[in-house]
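Section 4.2 – Deliverable D4.2 (structural model, holo form)

The reporting period included a commitment to supply a predicted holo structure for the target in complex with zinc ion. Inputs used:
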Amino acid sequence: MSSWGSPSRLSSDLYRERTASEQPVSLRRKRCACGKSVTAKQLVQYRACIACVRAGAKQMQAAA
Ligand SMILES: [Zn+2]
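Output (structure tokens):
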């Protein structure tokens, strides 16, 4: 029986989840529509990653 192995692994997973949930919202990783991971702050400000914001700005300039 090696039941002493799993509890420590479980507690480390719980610790990781807890520390992740305690991070400021602005530092949490979100995912842009293009699949690139961005900070929540970036998503709130620009609703996309830098690449998508720049691509959108280029398209708007081309249309104007
Ligand atoms: Zn993007």
